[in-house]
């Protein structure tokens, strides 16, 4: 089974795609020289694979990013109730932005403003191939 490409969406710059290397790992670089560690939101990714696979992948992704020590992980309790899974699901601007922060999952502002205040958002979905 191949792990699909994940998309890392910056809340400050346009989308940045992280590519899979031939060995199946995900590679990327975070450089914040002289600044505080960037905050990243890593919601559980949905998918069309078994529940155990999803649980294991999401836990491993979170634990590996947290253990790297280069990012500040935003607690999941601050996240909106839903997250985008594809770039085209992301809404920019504040048009029709709901007043309830928990309903702002599709909007970038829902992730970049309090209570989340993340600079980066991981989104995507898992599929068996």
If helices are DSSP runs of H or I spanning 4 or more residues, what is the number of helices?
2
From the alpha-carbon coordinates, what is the Rg to the nearest angstrom?
15 Å
H and E string? EEEEHEHEE
- The chain-level structural class is alpha/beta
**Bulk shape:** globular
Distance between the termini: 6 Å
- Order of the strands making up the biggest sheet: 2-1-6-3-5
Sheet having the most strands: 5 strands, mixed
Instruction: Tell me, rounded to a whole number, the average pLDDT.
Output: 81
Strand content: 5-15%
Low-confidence stretches: 1-22
Assign a percent range to the helix content.
10-25%
In total, the number of strands is 7
Would you kindly provide a written description of the structure presented here, covering whatever features stand out?
The chain is an alpha/beta fold. 17% of the residues lie in helices and 15% in strands. It contains two helices and seven strands; from the N terminus they run E-E-E-E-H-E-H-E-E. The protein has helices at residues 51-68, 109-112, and strands at residues 7-10, 16-17, 39-41, 47-48, 72-73, 120-123, 126-127. It has a five-stranded mixed β-sheet, with helices on one face. Strands 4-7 form a two-stranded parallel sheet. The longest helix has 18 residues, at 51-68. It is globular, with a radius of gyration of 15 Å. 19% of the residues are buried. The model is unreliable at 1-22 (pLDDT under 50).
